[in-house]
Amino acid sequence: MRCPVILGILGVAVFAGTVPAGGDVLYELRFRTSDSLLRGTVDLEEKVTVSVKGDRMRQEMSGTRAVLTRRGKRYQKPGHHVTLDQLDRGRRYEIDLDAGTYLEESFAGMRQRHEEEIAAAEKALGLKPTDAPPFVNVSVERPGERHQVHGRECERVVLKAVREIVLVATRGSGPVGQTPSRFSMVFDLCVAPDAELLREVQRVEERVADLTGLRGDLLERQLRVFGARRDTFAVFELLQHLLEREQRRLGGVPLRWERVFVGPKRDQPQTTLFRYWGEVTRIEAGALDAGPFELPPGLKLDQPRVAR
Questions:
Q1: Long-range contacts, 171-180 (Cβ 8 Å, 24+)
Q2: pTM score
Q3: For tag attachment on the chain, is the N or C end more exposed, with fewer CB atoms within 10 Å?
Q4: For residue 99, what are the contacts with CB-CB under 8 A and spacing of at least 6?
Q5: d(CA 264, CA 268)
Q6: Average pLDDT for 52-56
Q7: pLDDT category, 195, cuts 50, 70, 90?
Q8: β-pairing, 101-106 with 91-96?
Q9: Max Cα-Cα span within the chain
């Protein structure tokens, strides 16, 4: 089940008060996603529980995916998935609780694979390390509105970015020609002030991102790749990363958010291609049981996917 970016926009257990370094954190959120970037439309509703204990982080996701194919066929599929990041062992486990299977990969292996993919894309696109990074102007609006999300106060902030490119022909893409196509992305956030407990979640998130190459030099190289490509998915990824970067500069913690990506698709010059709404529903601080941060017994290793 595809899960939108959760970590990095949250880190939210901030209202339970100040806790000492190394304190355990747990929070829950719910979200809805409508994804029409590729063929058909996928609607996803999930509840997510994120917890951090020491050098380990656990994300448990349960919900339902509804799919409408390009040919009009509909089907639904429930899902129950857990991701375990164990920094002390340098490994990630992706667990499918419905199937009783899991995948295992080291952070070093993930980083190597990520770097190989980027290097191959750079070669195909003729990119060099000295090439300028892509520039997209991101506007920041503060309407002066304050809201309550489950009893917690936050300020509304709106981030916007626009990119115009001439698309190349891809399957399921929008109209292709010499006229630039316009894409826009908006983050509509309700941001609460930062506090001490956020640091524990951020600490683990940042270490995982460093070990897997999802920030730093590898991320900058990946943004150059997205900037050089001329397809809808690359525009989506580029704008999303740049808006997330601007969001981090705001400080604070989003308690409610909506992301909307608009652009052309087939015979529609402008349509909503991606919408992601979410909010934080529960926050806790206190000692957590270590058991859920271990790989559950009785699962079967998914060998074919590991081989790929």
A1: 171/39, 172/38, 172/39, 172/70, 172/265, 172/266, 173/231, 173/232, 173/265, 173/266, 174/232, 174/263, 174/264, 174/265, 174/266, 174/268, 174/269, 175/264, 175/266, 175/267, 175/269
A2: 0.85
A3: C
A4: none
A5: 6
A6: 92
A7: low
A8: antiparallel
A9: 59
Indicate the residue type of 268: Q
The partner residues of 52 in beta bridges, in order of sequence, read 25, 57
Amino acid at 56: R
Q: Mean pLDDT, to the nearest integer, of 139-149?
A: 95
Say how far apart CA 131 and CA 56 lie, in whole Å.
37
Main-chain dihedrals φ then ψ at residue 89, nearest 5 degrees: -110, -5
pLDDT of residue 288: 93
For tokens 């340098």, name the residue: 90
